[in-house]
Amino acid sequence: MSFFIRTSKLTSATTRSLPSRLFTTTITRSFSNTNRIMGVHNLANKVEFDAALKDNKIVVLDAFATWCGPCKAIAPKIVSFSETHTGAHFVKIDVDECPDVAQELGVRAMPTFMIFKNGEKIQEIVGANPVALEAAIANALKDE
């Protein structure tokens, strides 16, 4: 795991003439062998998707698109679920960035949530339905 942090300290004399966008703090984090309690992980390709299925007993996949309003609305709930259901590994895949994975999984609407157990899909929820999704996650973890 590695971190890169960039900050700027400016005095009030130098800040008067500079635009406010310069006063941002950038934090970048790269993940390598991350702990599953660390939230929802974005997958970039099929290799990462296959590795997530292989390395984790329960995987909750969020197939989303950046332009999708319901996807944006349910995203905070997914993060919350990842914090409360630590027995599952939560991943996201952008269907526009990884169309091969989306096509292989048969994603036709966004958001689509799929729950995998031991590499096999056991449930699919189409649409932003947090109640149904949490019930499906709890059901998948019940036998663990």
From TrEMBL:
Domain of life: Eukaryota
Extent of the signal sequence: none
InterPro entries, sorted: Thioredoxin-like_sf, Thioredoxin_domain
Domain Thioredoxin: start-end pairs: 12-142
Protein family per UniProt: Belongs to the thioredoxin family.
Annotated PANTHER family: THIOREDOXIN-LIKE PROTEIN 1 (PTHR46115)
Protein name from the UniProt record: Thioredoxin
UniProt source species: Calycina marina
